[in-house]
Amino acid sequence: MINLGDHNIEKLHARIEQLERQLAHYRATDGLGAGARYRALFDSMPQLVWATNQDGWHTYYNRRWYEFTGLSETESLGFGFANALHPDDKERTLTRWHKAWHDGESYEIEYRFRRHDGVYEWFIGRAMPVVAEDGRIVEWIGTCTNIDEQKRISEALSSFRNTLDRTHDCVFMFSPDDLKFFYVNQGAVDQVGYSKDELLTMTPLDIKPDYDEARFRALIRALIEGDEQVHTFITVHRHRDGHAIPVEIGLQYVPSEACFVAVVRDITDRMQAENRLRESEARYRALADAMPLLVWLATPDGKSFYYNQRYLHYTGLNKAELDMEGWSELIHPDDRAEAEVRWRASLANGFPYEMEFRLRRHDNEFRWMLVRAVAVRDEHHTISYWVGTNTIIDEQKRTEEMLRERSAELSHLTQALEIRNRELDQFAYVTSHDLKAPLRGIANLAGWIEEDLPDMPTPIKQHLDLMRGRVYRMEALIDGILQFSRVGRAKQEIELIDVRELLDDVIDLLAIPRHVMLTIDVDLPPLLTQKLLLQQVFANLIGNAVKHSLQDNLRISISAQPLPEHIEFRIADNGQGIAPKYHERIFGIFQTLASRDKIEGSGLGLALVKRIVEHQRGQVWVESAEGKGATFFFTWPYRVSEAGVAKHPRIQRDA
């Protein structure tokens, strides 16, 4: 028999079995004479009652069957009852009934029948054979008892117990009389290491070494008498292997059930976390005391409650004195009002606090402080406390004041220098104009002589050409000196330069002879720089290679290598080269290795290149050996555009 946990249902089942035995007895002794009387009895019963012949064929259902299922007699007789069975129960029910009928044994099973409105309810079905005097089974009498409510209660209870078994907390239930446990969940078993059967023979005293019976009964008496609703306390549980488990217990008395329910939580992790927190707090206090800063903590409403040793040493006050006097009283009177206003604003809106003010030292001297404070918030974003630091910046403030004074002096000197530079530019312009005037006269005179003496002797013509050449050289020298003096002073627009296009412009302007082979093979990033300065560098280096070439098959190659902070350009030629001893000399002003009568030049080209490159914080140098060509290198800082490195195809052109 299945235990439904309901005493009344068990009594009812017992009564049904008694009636079934009586019915079987009367059937065996009195035949069908009492049938009408028992049919009336069965129709009045709350159970579904049915009968079969000796072959298991259903020949009778009481009135309650038809009312519940809504089936007709024709639909029910025979094995029609199967039509009302739940589809999931049909196969096992018929199998079980066939076995009972075949073996002549009693029949009992739980299944679901469909109610007349389509709802299925649980029943427990029982049947007993009616045996004649000769031992033959003459018929079967069965009943179906509705257990739907008990089934649902049982399932709910099972689900509740499963839930309790899955919960992390432990649940113990015990009687106030003998204190024995009558229910424990799986969490309790896992916590203390005893099986459920073992725990159900034990009491709370068996797992609580800190309590004897007198002390424990005193604890629960207040709950029984209603002085407390729930008593929460921390103690230890003793595991089966003997080790102690720190626990927090919520103990409650349930008067309607006359029992105690204890919800127990293992707080090992919490205790360890609290220990770690205490250790951490001690470490941070030691760290705060060791810091060179003045550290303080304040409540959400701004009341200071902690000062590190540095703070106490600086002020010369102890914590009680600081709490009494208040930190604002230590602030310089000229700074106090603003400091308090800003602090109140931070307390109101939770924003970080930052200000510079002077704080009184233990010797009554005031020192400048940079004061910062931030709010520490909990998981709900509520301010728990404020952490503040005071950094002594007195020396920095004095340095700042000195720097401001020096800055003012420097600004004055800069203005004076700009005036001098403008005067120098004006002087250089006027001077170059005045110097060029007689040179133009000499050049004009040479032209007039040639016009007047068209058939002049060759030596005279050579002298005139030499004179004109030196006039042009002097003009170039004057222009070069003017350019050299303006490097770094003349302001030029900074723009994004496509270096390849710039090189094309330079080559076109130089009018390079056709016998020179020029090769450009570069991957160049765009440069954000002054276009004219870079153009002057390339023009001087390329022009210098062409000018000093003595062979007819001159080859010049231009390449570049992008580096992290700058780009390195290379201009290489296969000319006569430069001996290493002259590598530094050639960058000097007015320095040239060839006679000016053989090669026109001012001696300022490479000096101008060096001045421009170094003003851009770059470097210029040469690698060469006599008779083996020369390679000039220079670096130029750049800022790469968002587009990144621009790739250019290899080109080769004849100039």
Write the layout of secondary structure elements.
Elements: H1 7-30, H2 35-44, E1 48-53, E2 58-61, H3 63-69, H4 73-76, H5 87-103, E3 107-114, E4 120-131, E5 137-146, H6 148-166, E6 170-174, E7 181-184, H7 186-192, H8 196-199, H9 213-224, E8 230-238, E9 244-254, E10 259-266, H10 268-290, E11 294-298, E12 304-307, H11 309-315, H12 319-325, H13 333-349, E13 353-360, E14 366-377, E15 383-392, H14 394-452, H15 458-486, E16 494-497, H16 499-510, E17 517-520, E18 523-524, E19 527-530, H17 531-547, E20 555-562, E21 566-573, H18 605-615, E22 620-624, E23 630-637, E24 646-647, E25 651-654
Parallel strand pairs: 17-20
Antiparallel strand pairs: 1-2, 1-5, 3-4, 4-5, 6-7, 6-10, 8-9, 9-10, 11-12, 11-15, 13-14, 14-15, 16-19, 17-25, 18-24, 20-21, 21-23, 22-23
Helix pairs in contact: 14-15, 16-17, 17-18
